[in-house]
Write a structure and sequence with these properties.
Radius of gyration: 16 Å
Helix content: 10-25%
Structural class: alpha+beta
Order of helices and strands: EHHHHHEEEEEEEEEE
Shape: globular
Number of helices: 5
Strand order of the largest sheet: 1-2-3-4-11-6-9
Strand content: 25-35%
Distance between the termini: 33 Å
Largest sheet: 7 strands, mixed
Oligomer: single chain
Length: 188
């Protein structure tokens, strides 16, 4: 597998801190905007904890950037990017793997491949959907998506276009990993 972004490493902590300082926000400001405690944000910036996907999504939403934009310093401008060079991030709580396939400043499109382990769950706050539209397409395995009060079970080849922003949860209720593609359009 390609390089895994070390979510406990300097890159992510530095990125969050620099985004916060660029906006002249205190830790308390970011906490109020993200719903992540000031203590947790401080630990993330000091590299004392590894933030989960749910926490990173809340932070990204507060900054009004996508998770990909938070995890990377700058959008990729190359027309071709080999699989071995596509950044992969691993959620420390679920072992969920997220490969950034496509991200560029030229187009508002992002492509992300996700492998959700058997039995894993990932919660996504409504705030992370405010400035994006997305479609999930299951490649292998099965995936249950709870979007507000609606539950949709997806199998290989099935896709789901998300509606208006609402809290969501992705569940892999099977005994095998689920691999899916997320295509999203940034709307800013």
């Amino acid at each position: 597998m390609s390089n895994i972004i070390d979510d406990t490493g300097k890159q992510l902590a530095t990125r969050i801190s620099s985004e916060r300082k660029r906006r002249s926000w205190s830790l308390a400001d970011l906490a109020a905007r993200s719903g992540v405690s000031k203590a947790m944000l401080s630990k993330i910036e000091r590299r004392e904890v590894s933030p989960t996907a749910s926490v990173l999504l809340r932070i990204a939403a507060a900054f009004e950037v996508t998770l990909a934009e938070l995890l990377t310093d700058a959008p990729e401008e190359a027309r071709c990017r080999r699989a071995a060079d596509q950044p992969v991030w691993k959620d420390p709580a679920t072992d969920y793997l997220r490969r950034q396939i496509y991200l560029t400043a030229r187009l508002p499109l992002e492509l992300v491949e996700v492998v959700l382990p058997a039995g894993a769950d990932v919660s996504i706050p409504a705030s992370s959907y405010v400035f994006i539209r997305q479609v999930v397409w299951v490649i292998e395995g099965s995936l249950t998506i709870v979007e507000g009060d609606s539950e949709t079970k997806l199998g290989p080849g099935d896709r789901l276009e998300f509606g208006p922003p609402s809290d969501c949860a992705f569940h892999n209720e099977s005994r095998k990993p689920c691999r899916y593609l997320v295509a999203l359009i940034r709307q800013r």
